[in-house]
Amino acid sequence: MIELFTLQHTFPLETAVFGRVHMARLIRVRLTYRAAMKALLLRVGIDKGCGGTLSPIFDDGSFEFVPIPESVPAPGAATYNDRIGRKGKRLSAYVPSSIKNSPMHEDPEFLTCTYGDRTLKRYYLLKLVQGDLLVFYAGLQPFATDNYNEALYIIGYFDVDNVTEFNKVSEAELAESLQRYSHNAHVKRQNSLRDLVVVAGAEDSRLLDEAILISQKRPDRRGRPMHALSPEMEALLGISGFIQRSIPPRFVVEQQNVRNLVALLASTRL
């Protein structure tokens, strides 16, 4: 049974370390519910269909967030072998040998906290406003542990600061927007920005230290086992059904359910 937690919870400083090529980011996290807040749950990260594996979850519930491979040339994009994860190993230790030296599509990125999309997901992103939550979940598989199962877990969130639709950015504003979002994977591609929507997180956005389990497997109409929201999460969030696919993302809009989600996120340890 999932318990509800108090919302007022002040945490110590968090040091988010993203390998040798990233600087430490110190923030004070104080996530609280705000009236009219809504949340969008979105699947991200490497998976068996795009990358051939899942990100690892460890014995203590911590994890590495491993991005999908980059499919478009992106100057300056780090490879899996370049990036050292939070456990001190290169991310190449967790991916198939065929992509160890491939560039990564780091989206979302948690250094400056941006997430972008040019496909159908853009329409969902455009429904977000400042003060909403963009909550990321990913497929994780156990790494040298029997404490966790392969499943879907919440791995981080953005407290939305702003949403930029590049189709509406003027030429005068373009240089500033490109500088502001220079760490975003889509901007790094340096190709067409048409239809790109970028969500930026406020300072209390973060990659979680400990993953939050949200799924259990159920048979679909053809009898195939698929990841769906667990009964506990259905009750907590007020949404239901299969969440294995990234489309469609799922909105949490009822205010008690949003309160529950905020409390759940605020309860996680750093």
Average pLDDT, all residues: 88
Q: How far apart, in Å, are the first and last alpha carbons?
A: 22 Å
Largest sheet: 8 strands, mixed
Number of helices: 5
Q: What is the count of distinct domains?
A: 1
Secondary-structure-derived class:
alpha+beta
Strand content: 25-35%
> How big is the Rg?
18 Å
Question: How many strands?
Answer: 14
Order of SSEs, N→C? EEEEEEEHEEHHEEEEHEH
Low-confidence stretches: 1-28
Structure, explained:
The structure is a single chain. This protein is α+β, with helices and mostly antiparallel strands. It has one domain (14-267). It contains 5 helices and 14 strands. The strands form 4 sheets. Strands 3, 4, 7, 8, 9, 10, 11 and 14 form an 8-stranded mixed sheet that branches. A two-stranded antiparallel ribbon has the order 1-2. Strand 8 and strand 9 form a beta hairpin. 39% of the residues are buried. Mean pLDDT is 88; it is low at 1-28.
